[in-house]
Amino acid sequence: MIRRLLTQQLSARLKRFPAVSILGPRQSGKTTLAKTFSARYFDLEQSEDQLKLDLTWDSLVRSKQLIVLDEAQVLPSIFPRIRGAIDAERKRNGRFLLLGSVAPPLMKKVSESLAGRLAICELCPLFLAELNEKFHEDEMWLRGGFPDGGILKKKDFPVWEKDYLTLLAQRDLPAWGLPAKPQTTIKFFRMLAACHGQIWNASKIGASLGLSYHTVNHYLDYLENIYLILSLPPYHVNIRKRLVKSPKLYWRDSGLLHALLEISGKEALLSQPWAGASWEGWCINQILATLKTTGRNFDAHFFRTNDGHEIDLILKLSQGLWAFEFKLTSSPGLEDMKRLSSVADLIKADKCFLISKTRNPEIGKKIVSANIRHCLKMMLGSWKM
Hints:
- By secondary structure, the protein is of the alpha/beta class.
- It folds into two domains: 6-122, Rossmann fold (3-Layer(aba) Sandwich); 128-379, no CATH class.
- Helix content is 43%, strand content 17%.
- It has helices at 6-16, 30-35, 47-55, 57-62, 78-88, 108-113, 137-143, 147-151, 159-175, 182-194, 202-209, 213-225, 254-260, 266-270, 275-293, 334-347, 372-379, and strands at 19-23, 41-43, 67-70, 96-100, 118-122, 229-232, 248-251, 299-304, 310-317, 320-326, 351-356, 362-363, 367-371.
- The strands form three sheets. A six-stranded mixed β-sheet has the order 8-9-10-11-13-12, with helices on both faces. It has a five-stranded parallel β-sheet with strand order 2-3-4-1-5, with helices on both faces. Strands 6-7 form a two-stranded antiparallel sheet.
- Strand 10 (320-326), helix 16 and strand 11 form a beta-alpha-beta unit.
- The longest helix is centred in the C-terminal third of the chain and has 19 residues, at 275-293.
């Protein structure tokens, strides 16, 4: 079994809080990870487990074992009971582990009932920093990181991804409150795939669907809150240039993106005019997943002026402001680095990263040219910054 990097952060949170929630997309590995912490497991989507939990509640909360409650959002009535159990023995930590497939904005009962009692961790699908060198980065870029989606068994891609999206549209999203017909949701998925790596234009997408821009923005919020879409906000700085003010959108999992775009092999992927945007989004999500999973505090943005000056990713970290440019090439040029450095100076970035497929990293005090694996090692602190 692949050891998940979130394990360390999760263990630390359980020692400090009475309840911890692991949030993340369906099928990202939350249940598998949780079961390594406790055998007291209840799947709240199953009526049998709901009944068993209700009948054994008093003995469970008196026991010293961690209680794992999967898909907790489907049973809102459980949150006041958890709060009561916690408040009865406020100094006991590590009592409840809640698993969920939706973010806190869709779990109002959590914020209302467990404020101050609950720590939240996010589990992403498998990402490059969790896999050894035997896993080629291009395989993960093509098929994404869902454990059952083909990263471990090639033959399952892209059929698994298409079934996954269909079930989300037909069952899960309506159950979580998205007021769209499944066929509209699937069409929305495809439109978002076509504008991966682009500036969000709600009016344009709304016109294509026959909906208002308010409605498609509402739909987009749902997809962000179930961890399908990353909306990267623009970075605002006081310079004498007009700035792009709308967010930039990426699919969080490249396998889902490629399944929607009918790509099933590496050669077909590399022949697409949007391959660079796909790779850029994949790299950004690898970096953000690594930072989140290791508990780093950060803010992520992009930067673009109306006259074409752009930085693909800006990270505000305790170490300073870092600027990233992504180039799908094995031989980045000096001009690429000069261009990045020039735009980074506009925002007063402390460090610049040119991420490509180079095999010859160059590590300077302020400027770094490296591949994504070297970059992730730096994120994990393997190299002294």
